[in-house]
Amino acid sequence: MAGKSVLKRVDWLTVLFYLLLVTIGWVNIYSSTFSEADSSIFDFGALHGKQLFFILASFASIVILLALEASFYERFSSLLYIICLVLLLGLFVFGKTISGATSWYNLGFFNFQPSELAKVATALALAKYLSDIQTDIKRRKDQLYAFAIILIPAILIIPQPDPGSALVFFSLTFVIFREGLPLYYLGIAMLAILTFISTLMFGTIWVVIFIALLLILFFLLKNKKFRVPVIPLSVAVIVTILFSLSVNFVFNNVFEQRHRDRFSLWLRLEKDPNKLEQIRKTIGYNTYQSEKAIESGGFFGKGFLEGTRTKGDFVPEQHSDYIFTTVGEEWGFIGTATVVLLFTLLLLRLVYLAERQKTDFSRMYGYGVVSILLIHYFINIGMVIGILPTIGIPLPFFSYGGSGLLFFTALLFVFLKLDANRLKEGI
Amino acid sequence: MKKLLLSSIIVIIAITFLGRLSYLQIFTFSPDQVLEDPAIKRVYDYPERGYIYDRNGKLLVGNDPAYDVMVIPREVRQLDTLEFCRLLGIDKLKFKNELRKARIYSPRLPSVFVPQLSKEDYAKLQEKMRHYKGFYIQKRSLRYYDTKSAANVLGYISEVNERDLAKNPYYVQGELTGRTGVEKQYEDILRGRKGVQYIQKDRFNRDIGKYKDGMMDTLPEQGMEINITIDKALQEYGEKLMHGKRGGIVALEPATGEILAMISGPTYDPALLVGRERSKNYSKLHYDSIAKPLFDRSILAEGSPGSPFKTLNALVALQEGVITPNTTVQCYNGFYVGRKKRGCHCGGGLRRLNDGIYKSCNAYFAATFRKIYEKFETTDEGMDVWEKHMKSFGLGQYLGYDLPTGKKGRIPSKEYYDKWYGDNRWAPSYIISNSIGQGEVAVTPIQLANMTAAIANRGFYFTPHILKKVDGKNISIPDYVEPKHTTIDKQHFEPIIQGMAEVYEKGTAKYVQIPDIRIAGKTGTVENFTKIDSVRVQLTDHSVFVAFAPVEKPEIALAVYIENGYYGSRYAGHIASLLIERYLKGEITRTDLEKRMLERTLEYEYAKPYLGKEFRINEYDWSQHSKPLEELISRE
User: Fold this and answer.
1) A308 vs B10: CB contact, 8 Å cut-off?
2) Closest in B7, B29, B203 to A313, CB measured
3) Bridge partners of residue B139, in order along the sequence
4) Hey, how many other C-beta atoms are within 10 angstroms of the C-beta on A235?
């Protein structure tokens, strides 16, 4: 077994999902950017032609990634991480600004986005740190280190500004949870989000009333022998109430108007239907158009190259962040459901692969890959179909963009190489 | 637990997404969205509206090209404003204002810059147009009228309103539709069907090519031309005679039911409701609440028929066998209802049916009317029979002609009187006025004309109609070609027609006979009242006349109803006589009669109730009717 070629050992099911997603993605980019004037699908001047070039480049990179020694990734992960941090810092000096964000290096033939590379590097570095024999995630200090690895690139990316990409790094906390971080951290985070949203929607008074009701219920139903941890409980209640009180202040004074509008739209905070419609058509223009385009596709869709809203460029950024609307309009529910299922199957397959790894490093990296892919997919489609506020991040393997596709491919195939090597490592 | 956390999140997300997507794409999806798609623009190609001709193929309504100068503000480049303004005939201020207005509407979309250029201005502008970037000329088609008459028949067209849009999905904002008359009635035929091109747009509303390569596009279907039954010459002549008078005239061809003329006075030039001045003119006509030029008196004015109704009462009495042509009645210069005497102008004496008609004896027909219901045990039964006979002449109901408006008129039934007086609280004497066409009977001029046609045909009529040919082919609508039979047998008509012919030969209309043509007619003089400061005041009688000619083989049957024209032969009799001669001979031999009608107006009569002082009615001397109104009023 050990001597067999990497091609025999690589997980072909994952490769199949990958190829399907890339192909469907490209077909939809072709449709989104198609105009009658274009002559050939290989027209590298057109966007779909450029994307085709990057797909081919990604395939080439797969060969290299699979050919490299598996241990290379673990060994050089720290170095790669540091290089990435340097590159992110360098953007402050040498960065090229595209549509308001200084996120790119101009390499002449191609704009390189280091935050994409940083996602791969951070996943590797985190796996490396957590799998270190000396790391014990139960220790506060080591928890802090782990979070620092995630936070440093995020902090460097936020001022570009690219809050969407920064958000991606937080998804890596899933890896830490998998490796033993107590789940109450997640509980606290969820509680904070819940308090934040419910305060915005119902106001502090109702949040306090709700907490009081919960406490009464708790004392009525509790087992007589159960000893109430009075101090932690009262601290938790007080902190929650203080947090709830601070929400309105933060919302009104720290957030900018455009952020407030996005929340107003998302949580339907604006009660006046006319104003809400106004926000929908201005701030929520993209979401409004993408929802309408998807709706107009119906069950069977309008057919390939028949999407009238797609052709009319009604949805901005349709070939990149809003590529999913093309699927919705031209292929209908059949198309959108297929894409959602493909992503779900791919992610579940990756979780399964991660769990069967023999080494901690491979497993943790696998979790990192799933987390990063999951958060992109969740936020992107969630935004396009109008259940999440507008956050601009691409749909993996789908959206137009050279460095995006290259690094998602790298992210995935580094893991597939590790997976193909797991039996060797085990011996 | 920790191993399952991520997997369960993945599954939950998938379920959420599928739920939301099925909501969007399955539950809120509605299949007609292609037409509401904002990305598809429909460009219409309008066919020319069909022409309208008269029964002899003479043009009544055609189309005239009109030219609008359009502007797309964003494409406007530096230009010689001075020359451009001179060509358009506007000043610089207007130029600036119009451009600003257009830019506010939309910098990308065309707006009308100067509407409806004349052909001359268009000719001058056309060759220079290419110098002015962002401006272009759009051709439109306006209704053109080859007559100043028949506005009430032809109707007019105007832009569709909200109600039209809701009612008929064919129309879109800004399109024209027939509003009244023939234009409304035959809208679908005249309009044709617009062609549609589907254009793919982008979000800035710019065209980016044809939708589905034009597969769904349609070509326009031309509107069809129609011939209407109106005789243009007769209609125009009738309107000339109506000058200064109020009332309605309807002339029918008894053998077909075709409407030869339909005149309402006062009327207006149909060209007033076309073009730039349209809305101004419309307001003027609409707010003239005294003369009401938009009110089509020929089919909407309900009034007492007066003496012509006596002929119908005589027919019913003959049919019911309660009189014979030889039945006699003594007229005491009137007749008694209970102890009250009602007058009669026939001169008194013993009357038979024949001279009862031509001398229009009230006493004779009061007696006849009594005999009809006295035949039956109760008045109720008598009334039912009487009502049935009357309605068989098309009275008291919609006639079913092809014009968009109409009135039912009234033939009072026993229920009507029960409601008015209370059940069984009314006696035959209450309704005796109906015997002479006063009282509760009400008819429109077209009903009166139709009734005359039924007499002319000796017992049947064809539903009056206005449509003759569509696209050059005669129509064959069953409702218009099948005769409607009255409940009176044919043999009863001859004595009546004999009496009506003698109206001309020795009766109330002997001064308006036409040499060589035998006419049958009946005068009517209708008492009428108005309220001045809520006091009931009697006005000068309405002048009514019905006639048909020639007696043996009738070619025209008409009813003339002139408000406040005094006795029947004065205005109505004159006009009826002139119209018949004009129609049958094509010329007028009695020019003195014609001159009188063209000169005399009733403005003086119509002004009386508004003068605010006492006035006399039914003045015998009518020479002053030819004098200008101002002079008459100051003399008073």
Assistant:
1) no
2) B203
3) B67
4) 11
Report yes or no: B455 and B496 within 8 Å, Cβ to Cβ: yes
ipTM: 0.88
> Judging by DSSP bridges, how do beta strands B59-71 and B135-145 pair with one another?
antiparallel
Residue A2 has pLDDT above 60, yes or no: no
pLDDT band at B374 (very low <50, low <70, confident <90, very high): confident
Query: Quick check: A328 contacting B, CB < 8 Å?
Result: yes
Q: Which domain, by its residues, includes A135?
A: 69-179
Cα–Cα distance between B131 and B80 in angstroms, integer?
A: 9
Q: For residue B353, is it within any domain?
A: yes
Pairing of strands B247-253, B556-562: antiparallel
- Burial label for A148, CB within 10 Å (0-12, 13-18, 19+), is exposed
At B598 the three-state DSSP class reads helix
Residue B421 and residue B302 share a domain: yes
Residues 6+ apart with CB under 8 A from A192: A243
Which tokens is A426 given?
């085990």
B168-186 pLDDT, tens digit per residue, is: 888 876 678 899 999 999 9
Do B247 and B128 share a structural domain?
Answer: no
On whether residue A89 sits in a domain, the answer given is: yes
Task: Supply the CATH number for residue B385's domain.
Answer: 3.40.710.10
DSSP state of B557: E
Q: What is the pLDDT of residues B211-227, one digit of tens each?
A: 767 777 888 888 899 99
Angle between helices A257-266 and A273-281 in degrees, nearest 10? 120
Is B309 contained in some domain? yes
B31 part of contact set with chain A, CB < 8 Å: yes
- Cβ distance B26 to A333 less than 8 Å, yes or no, reads yes
Q: Look at strands A111-112 and B40-45 and give their pairing.
A: unpaired
Q: What is the three-state SS of B216-228?
A: CCECCECCCCEEE
State the pairing for strand pair B59-71/B52-53. antiparallel
Is B172 part of the contact surface with chain A (CB cutoff 8 Å)? no
Q: What is the largest CA-CA distance in chain A?
A: 79
For residue A260, CA distances in Å to A244, A269, B98, B266 come to 17, 10, 41, 68
Of the residues B109, B133, B157, the one at which a domain ends? B133
- Nearest Cβ partner of A295 from B16, B24, B200? B24
What CA–CA distances, in Å, run from B65 to B117, B118, B144, B275?
A: 10, 9, 9, 11
- Cβ B564 vs Cβ B605: under 8 Å: yes
- Look at residue A100 and tell me if it is in a domain: yes
Q: How far apart are CA A160 and CA A166, in angstroms?
A: 10
B408 token code pair:
């039912």
Q: Rounded distance, CA B605 to CA B240, Å?
A: 19
Where is the domain boundary, B79, B101, B133? B133
As a whole number of angstroms, the distance between CA B363 and CA B367 comes to 6
**Could you tell me if A145 and A129 are in contact, meaning their C-beta atoms sit under 8 angstroms apart?**
yes
B168 three-state secondary structure: coil
> Range of B91's domain?
63-133
Say how many residues make up chain B.
636
Q: How far is the CA of B302 from the CAs of A86, A246, B334, B447, B493, in angstroms?
A: 98, 80, 27, 10, 26
Whether residue A366 lies inside any domain: the answer is no
Total domain count, chain A:
1
- Do B594 and B461 belong to one domain? yes
How does pLDDT run across B9-33, given as a tens digit for each residue? Answer: 999 999 999 999 999 888 887 654 5
Using alpha carbons only, what angle is made at residue B483 by residues B477 and B484, rounded to the nearest 5 degrees? 110
- CB–CB of A11/A419 below 8 Å? yes
Rounded to the nearest angstrom, the minimum Cα separation between A212 and chain B is 30
Number of domains in chain B: 2
**Mean pLDDT computed over every residue of chain B:** 87
- Look at residue A87 and tell me if it is in a domain: yes
Q: What residue type is assigned to position A40 of the chain?
A: S
CA angle (A225, A228, A231) in 5-degree steps: 160
